Amino acid sequence: MIRLGIIGATGSIGEQAIGVLNSNRGRFHLKFATAHTRRSELELLTCNHGSHGVPELFVTSEIGSQPVLDAIHLENIDLLLVASEGVSGLEYTYAAANAGVPVALANKESLVLGGHILMPIFAEMGGGSQMFGGVSGGGVSGVSGDTFGAMFGGAGTGAGTGAQIVRPGVIPVDSEHSAIFQSLMGQDTSSVAKIVLTASGGPFRKFTPSMMAGITREMALFHPNWSMGQKITVDSSTMMNKGLELIEARYLFDMPGDKIDVVVHGESIVHSYVVFKDGATIAQMGVPSMLAPIAFALGYPYRLETGLPTFDMLKYPTLSFEAPDTARFPALGLAQEALKVDSPCVYIGLNAANDMAVAGLLNDTIGYNDIARVVAHILDSEFLYKTDTGTIDGVQSLVDEVQHKSTQYMKRLR
Ligand code: NAD
Ligand code: MG
Q1: Which of the residues 121, 143, 314, 406 has the least number of beta carbons within 10 Å of its own beta carbon?
Q2: Residues 6+ apart with CB under 8 A from 240
Q3: How far is the CA of 9 from the centre of ligand 1 (A)?
Q4: Percent helix, strand and coil across the chain, each to the nearest 5
Q5: Is 127 in the pocket of ligand 1 (CB under 6 A)?
């Protein structure tokens, strides 16, 4: 029985996670669940959640709510799913890391903002230098010999064998990072030539530059392949989502930026892949559904029921791949530039400015093409490079400053 907490249970990821609990009755004990608003929806979702016990429910409008932080420390959970939106995930992810609670991480912004602080703590929890710090004693570091054996040797026995499961400190939920994580299992990271994140390219993949100039808020809120929260839907359309994912991958897999590529793959069947130095390439594939990576993160190291159909390659006789175009998608170019600098303050500036710019689009304060302008303006600002970001408070104060400066700049764009 996995004792679980969920931050952001009423969101797109949170709801699908509860769907996974429903498909795997008896495997989970949902100890608590949170939402930002909509208590009745949270009650409805969790009243028949397919797990034992009655979860404690928190509806919190403040960031870093103390009762939730207390629950992370005191509820004796095995795993925390962090699936809230934007900057709100950081404090909860940090609290879990400090409490020694492994995190199933959907909220990529937590790592973009605080990966330099979080990853060393997560690595200690997993018992290795990083998630895949190398192969030792026949297993991937961070996974005990028993678990490794259960994964690859005793698959038929499934969960409930009584084996002690040692989870890595952080298990990615983001589909690309889950794909990379799965492709790296049992591998020695020193043999990785590069990791490649696939991108759907979003709704504007085929737009000409002149069509790009006419994009509206409503157009940006439609995604062809994925049904997601508003912020990530806009991020997918600008390809800033892929930019944030590059930084997420840089921290999660401890890879330098020049070993992380992006390839546009409109069908979203290949969820990402790893190229090894001997020329072998391992990809993880499946239909475009977040149920699979959510279930993988929640059930690790076991694979759970998701209700997804068995994958049939014959249904996808042609798959396409193309290089991303940073002239039409400048937000991705900004993230690639940030990776070259590879400094927490640049990552924090990029993330916090993007948060503000997307909010500005959603409340009609700025236009679609202003999003990358706001981010570029912040990355060009000197103040960004003068803050100590070595603590979570330091990160938060830089976020506050970026938010303030972005708001001022957006007023000039009106
Ligand atoms: P969403 O907007 O659908 O849901 C967000 C959830 O977080 C809701 O439950 C909401 O109540 C809660 N929340 C919002 N603001 C909060 C705050 N200040 N404090 C606490 N809780 C708050 O978002 P989503 O699409 O589920 O995405 C959640 C996270 O997962 C994001 O970081 C996103 O980038 C990431 N992610 C989502 C998908 C996807 O398919 N939706 C895929 C990969 C990664
Ligand atoms: Mg993703």
Answers
A1: 314
A2: 331, 332, 334, 335, 354, 371, 372, 375
A3: 8
A4: 50, 15, 40
A5: no
pLDDT 10s digits, 280-316: 999 999 999 999 999 999 999 999 999 999 999 999 9
Summarize the confidence of residues 396-408 as an average pLDDT.
97
Q: How many CB atoms lie within 10 A of CB 145?
A: 12
Token couple for 60: 């919190």
135 vs 161, which has greater pLDDT? Answer: 161
Which of 228, 241, 242 most suits a substitution to test ligand 1, by most atoms within 8 Å of the C-beta? 228
Give the separation between CA 34 and CA 44, rounded to whole angstroms. 13
Structural tokens at position 35? 């939402």
| Ligand 2 centroid, distance to 239 Cα (angstroms) | 11
**Residue 98 CB coordination number (10 Å):** 14
pTM exceeds 0.90 for this model: yes
DSSP 155-221: GGG-S-S-PPP---SEEE-SHHHHHHHHHHTT--GGGEEEEEEEE---TTTT--HHHHTT--HHHHT
pLDDT at res. 9:
95
Between the CA of 197 and the centroid of ligand 2 the distance, in Å, is 9
Rounded to an integer, the average pLDDT of 243-254 is 98
Closest C-alpha residue for ligand 1 atom 8: 11
Contact predicate 268/227, CB 8 Å: no
Q: At what angle do helices 89-99 and 392-413 cross, to 10 degrees?
A: 170
Q: Separation of 221 CA from ligand 1 center, angstroms?
A: 15
Q: How far apart are CA 405 and CA 400, in angstroms?
A: 9
CA dihedral 132, 393, 65, 119 (to 10 degrees): 0
* Complete DSSP assignment for 243-275: HHHHHHHHHHTT--GGGEEEEE-TT--EEEEEE
**Using one digit for the tens of pLDDT, what is the confidence trace for 1-54?**
999 999 999 999 999 999 999 999 989 999 999 999 888 888 888 786 666 678
Q: Is the CB of 179 under 6 A from ligand 1?
A: no
CA of 53 to the centre of ligand 2 (A): 32
Query: Are 111 and 169 in contact, with CB atoms under 8 Å apart?
Result: no
Residues in a beta bridge with 192: 276
Q: Give 40's contacts (C-beta < 8 A, 6+ positions apart).
A: none
